[in-house]
Amino acid sequence: MTLPFDPTGTPGPTHLVLVNKAGERSLWPVFLPVPQGWRAEHGPASHANCLRTPGLTAG
Amino acid sequence: MALTVQQIRKDVADVLGEDPADIPDDENLADYGLDSMRLMSLVERWRRDHGADISFVDLAERPAIEAWTPLLGAQE
Amino acid sequence: MTAVPTAETTAGPATESAPVATAADAVGLPLTAAQSGMWYAQALDPQSPALNTAEYLDLEGALRPELLAQALHRTAREADALCVRIAQTPDGPRQFPLDLGTPGSGFPLHTADLRSEQDPRAAARAWMDDDLTRPFDLAAGPLFRHALLRIGDERWLWYQCVHHIVMDGFGYSLLARRTAEVYSALAARAQPGERPFGRLAELIADDAAYRHGEQFGKDRAHWAEALAGRPQAPSLAGRAELPSRTFLRRSARVPDRTVARLRALADELRATWPDVLIAAQALYVSRATGSSDVVLGMPMMGRMGSVALKIPGMVMNVLPLRLTVRPDTTTAGLTRQVVLAVRAARRHQRYRFEDIRRDLGLLGEGRALVGPLVNIMPFDYGLPFSGITAVPHNLSAGPVDDLTVNVYDRTDGRGLRIDHDANPAVYTGDELIAHQRRFLQLLNRIVSCDPAAPLAELGIATEEEQWRVLVEFNDTARPLPATTLIGPFEEQARRTPAAPALVYGDRTLTYAELNAEASRLARHLTGHGVRPGALVAIALPRSVELIVALLGVLKAGGAYLPLDPGYPAGRLTDMLEDAAPVCVVTDSATRTQLPDTELPYILLDRTDLSALSPLELPRAPSPRHPAYVIYTSGSTGRPKGVVVPHAAIDNRLRWMQHTYPLAPGDRVLQKTPSGFDVSVWEFFWALREGATLVVADPDGHKDPVYLARTIQEQSVTVCHFVPSMLQVFLAEPEAAGCSSLRDVFCSGEALPRDTVRGFHRTLPTAQLHNLYGPTEAAVDVTHHTCTPGRSGPVPIGRPVWNTRLYVLDAALKPCPPGITGELYLAGVQLADGYLHRPGLTATRFVADPYGQGGSRMYRTGDLARWTADGEVTYLGRTDQQVKLRGQRLEPGEIEAHLAAMDAVTGACVTVREDRPGDQRLVAYITGSPAVPDQESLRAHLSTVLPEYMVPSAIVRLDDFPLSPNGKLDRRALPAPATDAKTDGRAPCNPTEETLTRLFAEVLGLERVGTEAAFFDLGGTSLLAARLMSRIRDTLGFSAPIGTLFRAPTPAALADRLTDNTGTDTALEVLLPLRASGEGLPLFVFHPAGGISWCYSGLLPRLGAGRPVHGLQARGLTRDGESLPATMDEMAADYAEQIRTVQPQGPYRLLGWSVGGVIAHTVAVHLQQTGERVDLLALMDAYPSDQWRDLAGPTEADALGALLRMAGFEGGDGLTRDSVLATLRHEGSALAALPERVLNAVLGIVTNNARLMRTHRHHVFEGDLLFFTAGAPRAEDWLTPHAWRPYMTGRLDEHTLDCLHPEMTQPRQLDTIATVLTARLKELDT
User: Fold this and answer.
1) I need a surface site. Which of B52, C176, C400, C656 has the fewest CB within 10 A?
2) What is the pLDDT of residue C448?
């Protein structure tokens, strides 16, 4: 199965970083609409770059 | 309404996604991507809209506008 | 039924329309490649009507049937491809011209007047449906039949049925058109015009020219490249079968509005409507199978630009269309892919489908090249029937392997009709209806949406299905009080302070005592900085102290982190560094196993808490605070900690209590190590409900005897098992005594149905519950109570309280019931995330598009599907994560450690199950010569990984096998070195053993294992036919080639041929070595060991047609069956068995060694009861008086007898193990005998030796055929003449140059069989 939350193997902006009111974050593929209660905090960016954003790097 | 050669050219070009001016009358239309599906749709169209009395095999035997003209009873 | 009137004479000379008979007709013509494909398809099941194609035309008007009959006749004669019969010749199948006769005299036209029927149309339909099921006789012909059924005064149905080997769909339209022309001409009294058709010979010549031409090679190369690296062909049902004899059909009309939009969209995209329809099908298939690489099949007529344009015949081909459908693909993009793929396929469409399959090595069942077919059929049915309107209807479009979508655009204003045809062996009627309904809804959605939008916005479930899976199946909302893990325990302790809370060995603590201990510890811990949100590591063996520690940490508000002291120090250090707890609670003994860190270690056995207050603490954690952190295997090399909040685990325990209520008398067993989250409910459930927790010994969880005893002694009512451990437990005889058990829970692995059966047999008063859930969702999220008597996979069940399950496809759209997708979990039981890993957490705990705003869902990586009634079934993983005996591991973690070692350049870890039931963790590495050996590698891994994660074998490879697209091909990884001679386990009965030898013979190989598939080893259709023929001659089983396709290995084939009786009949007293055949059977008698398999070598040598039955000793299959006390008793028993096969003589008997003595005794017995025995043959067997004075046999002798029975010489110093090793090495079926049987054999040998010594022979009235082992031997006094006193006839001796044990070896059997065959032939005449 192709998995929407894994790196796609193709270059370019494929994902977003979403955040909700509680401050929880979620990776998200660009081809799907953003679910209710979430907003896009970063992206579109590559999978790897999404994981480099401040909210997702281990501190 | 009888078919004219211009109409034939236009319909063929339509179905092939080309400009009518780009298709020579003696050209083998199979080389332009005329397949059985597209040919059948032309047969249907010409029967339905112009009452042409032709069969798929008639046209498939030699797929070129100039060969079709007499079969379809078209005038210039 | 009216007779068809004789034909009117037509005006003018008869037009030349019949082929001239030539000398060539006698040898016939070869088949085209297209026809050969059909020939072999029919050969798979010769009686199947599946290759009958049929349609009827609904004719309205003043039809003149006699003219139609003439027109049919004439048209048929003009189409010489139609007028053939096809028969097998030494050069393969060929077609021969056929004389058709005339209407009314041989021409296959049936006429009937059904106007007087109550419902003429229905009657006609019934007749046609029935006719369709009658197979054609290819060798006799004709291969078509017509019918003209009158259902009204001006209403007729013209039916034609043609075998697909001579005609395809386009051919039908040519024939129909010509028939109409001829009819119209005849009706107008005019000449029909010249025959328009080309000749069959032209088709054949054209086909041959293609196959020898340049284009052939180019086409082959094109397809090899186009299909390189493709995955398994998608089947909507998940499996492939051979076509059945019938098919299911579901018809639908595409609504006009959809058709209009479809055409408009096609125009907009510069494509044709079939292109868009195929795109829709590709989308459907990709979502329904979870694969982005979809291969559909597209039948193509292959007539354009070809001599075949005007020849009715079998020309069509099916071409693969390979498409990539990703969620971000758009309608426009996918349609464009279809256009290009179809165009490319057209350019290379002459290369046969069967050839493509063969080139790719896909012969044999289960190896489909394409998924569903999309068959667009806009054939020209504008028929020039004068005065008659004709509407065509298809009845059968040919065999259906899987699913075919037939689309008809009849160009007469009736719109698009779609027939979904399906193979009933693969789909049920309901499934087919569902597929069609969904497809039509999907098609409508596609043509209505923006072609530039990603297809991810579309799901394949119908609206009703969506509601069902998202809402109805997830109706689990239940308001609960906001409590924590620990709160209810404290409340319970207040309610029942004196009740027993905890039992460990002979210690019991009451609730009050336990609560007080824990509270004291909690106070101590708060002094060390433990508070809500803080983490405390606990490293203690199972004991009272462990429970106290867990409760103490929670009471202090902290979350506990269990550490298994058995883990290697390196791993523990990793975990402690990663988690950074505020302290570690342990004891002095365990402390020595823990690494040294900066953290405070609290040694419970050295800490005096007695001075602290036992009162509960005022400050408590809130439901949002973490309750525990449990580490699981990480795929990149380091384990990760899952943080579970109180609210999550509290929901789980409240649900559990409601569903399986615990009462104060209940006793729950704590046996699961604290590092596995199953232990969480074991620890806390009982203590929250006033029941008693029975704590097992630290290592007791692995010992089934200990567990059974503990359960009985402690009257345990509730416990948990990982399924593989349950299996072990149930095998323990004491398990059956655990009648106190009421509820047993399984989780952690797939629960096999077999284990469920075993459970209900062993513990009939207990209930078994299958639970499922990852650590990331508070232990379990689904439940299913097993009911006895069910079959099929055990579901994981329905969601628990306040939990939702989603089965989603690659675009995160809900999968309808029955379709596989990835399982996502939502609801209150989700963990907070991974400790200190926000990135990883964000990729696994993602936004939930179906929940309340802002909610999350967890992606499990498990594949699953909904059943129709709302349960979920588990189907495997999407990634490489595995469960090994219930324990989760990421191969990536192990690979990371291997790859980090010097000299190792690459690593790959996988779980193999080369023997069923035996799972092993195997690693593969590449590297420089400096790579350490296997043992050193494993030793190193043991310092950083828990024991269960250390591979049992590490295989060195030069390179990793790659699939054509460059990725690692796990399926091609070699099995670790075992005995290379067996590809699978040893044969376990003589049929299997014989089949392995026949496979080897036909394939020209030295040896073939029981699990080796025929086609994998190079088998072709031709060799398959030869194999089935050898099997028929050797074993007497007659089966069509199709059986081999269904069961391509010796093991599977043996099963099928013997109707799955396999090993069980192989040890019965009467053994049908070859049950079928015309002649009188030969009965053969077991040697000393009691088993008659040694005679199977006679089967191929005696020639087909003669049945052979073996007699075997009592006691092999049934325990406690008593052995005969005398040889006479044995003989009487065997004689009775013989009579069940052959009630009357004359009998033919053969025996080797002790079997010969038995044969003589049976022969005498039969004669005494008045029967005739006309053959008594002995192989080196001597009367009992020759043995009387010798010593009795020892076990070594018995073992020697076992070896000899298998055909090998014994030698000295035989032990049971050495004998078994020899048998296994030689691939003997005897090696696979279970322990019990081997014991029985030894007993039988001893008994037979005794019977031999005590027996007194009687006289046999007849001749004796004797085979002597003539090589020099120690017992040189043995001579066949010793039989003289016990026989009246002639002694016919044949001496073989071999030793006694060698008599059943091939060379000797050759001689013996030759003599026997000759003698039997004499007797038969």
Assistant:
1) B52
2) 95
Cβ pair C272:B38 closer than 8 A? yes
Under a CB-based contact definition with an 8 Å cutoff, are residues C857 and C826 in contact? yes
pLDDT in tens, C1018-1067: 666 657 767 887 887 788 777 766 678 778 889 889 888 876 544 455 77
Average of pLDDT values for C547-567?
Answer: 94
CA dihedral C1033, C1037, C1039, C1042 (to 10 degrees): -100
Return phi, psi of residue C1210, to 5°.
Answer: -80, -70
At C366, give phi and psi (nearest 5°): 85, 5
Catalytic residues of C: 1300
Looking at the predicted structure, is the pLDDT value of residue C14 above 60?
Answer: no
> Which among C278, C299, C300, C282 is positioned nearest to C236, based on CA atoms?
C282
Distance, CA of C905 to CA of C927 (rounded, Å): 5
**Interchain proximity C346–B43, CB inside 8 Å:** no
Rounded distance, CA C616 to CA C486, Å?
A: 11
Least confident of C171-185, C824-838, C877-891: C877-891
| Residues of chain C positioned with their CB less than 8 A from the CB of A55 | 838, 842
Tokens 């580490």 correspond to C631
CA C55, CA C379: separation in Å to the nearest integer?
A: 13
Residue C304 has pLDDT above 70, yes or no: yes
How far from C430 is each of C73, C297, C750, C817, C873, CA to CA, in Å? 42, 23, 28, 12, 19
Contact indicator for C747, C780 with CB cutoff of 8 Å: yes
Q: Tell me how far apart the terminal alpha carbons of chain A are, to the nearest angstrom.
A: 33
β-pair partners for C909: C923
Q: What are phi and psi of C392, to 5 degrees?
A: -85, 150
* Residue C281 bridge partners (DSSP): none
Rounded Cα gap, residues C98 and C86, in angstroms:
10
Report the 3 state secondary structure along C617-650: CCCCCCCCCEEEEEEECCCCCCCEEEEEEHHHHH
Q: What is the dihedral of CA C1035, C1041, C1046, C1052, to 10 degrees?
A: 20
pLDDT of residue C1235: 67
Rounded to a whole number of angstroms, the distance from the CA of B45 to the nearest CA of chain C is: 9
- Which residues numbered 1-59 in A keep a CB inside 8 Å of some CB on C? 1-6, 17-18, 20-22, 24-38, 51, 55-59
Q: ipTM score of the complex?
A: 0.98
Complete DSSP assignment for C169-193? HHHHHHHHHHHHHHHHHHHTT----
* Chain C residues lying within 8 Å of B40, measured CB to CB: 378-380
Q: Is C61 left (phi over 0), alpha (psi -120 to 50) or beta?
A: left
Q: Which amino acid is at C220?
A: R
Which residues face C321 on adjacent strands? Answer: C296
SS (H, E, C) C1041-1106: HHHHHHCCCHHHHHHHHCCCCHHHHHCCCEEEEECCCCCCCEEEECCCCCCCHHHHHHHHHHCCCC
Pick out chain A residues at pLDDT < 70.
1-2, 59
pLDDT over 50 (residue C981): no
Contact C1151, C1085 (CB under 8 A): yes
Separation CA C1100–CA C1103 (nearest Å): 6
CA distance C380 to chain B (A): 6
Helix (H, G, I), strand (E, B) or coil at C2: coil
Tell me the CATH number for domain B5-71: 1.10.1200.10
Residue ranges of domains in chain B = 5-71
Q: What are the structure tokens assigned to C836, written together?
A: 């200190």
Q: Do C839 and A17 touch (CB under 8 A)?
A: no
* C421 contacts C232 by C-beta, under 8 angstroms: no
Could you tell me if C852 lies within 8 Å of chain A, comparing CB atoms? yes
